[in-house]
Amino acid sequence: MTALSWAIVYILMIRRGYLEKTYGMPLVVLAINVSWEFIYAFVLHPAQMDVEAWLWVGVNAIWLVLEMIILIQAILYGPRENWPSKSFFYGAVTASLFFGFTGILAVAFQLHDWDGRWTSFIDNLIISILFINMLYQRGIRGQSIYIGFFKLLGTFNIGVSYLSTDLGSPLQWYLTFSILFFDVVYIVLLYRKIRAAAENPWTRF
Fold first, then answer.
1. Domain layout of the chain by residue ranges
2. Is 21 left (phi over 0), alpha (psi -120 to 50) or beta?
3. Mean pLDDT score across all residues of the chain
């Protein structure tokens, strides 16, 4: 469910980005996501690689391909957004990718997070918060209710899955339900913004 839900999120972002000539993910988050998927597809793996672990490597690689399309959209359309200049924007892209990549590696080695559990949830919390910020920075462009729903579904599903085997983890409880809170807030705010723009939220894919 998580793999499919996040793939749908990326596909819907690509679609809205193409239709509205923008990119559907905050730049910092995009850089962190691209870095996370590259690292956990090609750099870091659990010590014991069973069938499920190899399947997740494949999922991460598929996600990376979709994220790269969003990154290309960001490079193409990003300077048209509210940035001081093209050079500033491309500098921000470069810095975000560098610090996203090194940041994921630093957290992974500090927490011995070889399967990406903690880095993925920390990344998700950042996404949830910055989606709200993006909504107020540039309105509904590049966004849809369905992106928010599938993000919520995918992340909450794997959060509950971890809690089912690690019920005593306070960090997992915090990350799972703080992400859920901000995702719900984002969906409600986005719904209101789309209605205020005289559009039907349920027909905006």
1. 2-203
2. left
3. 96
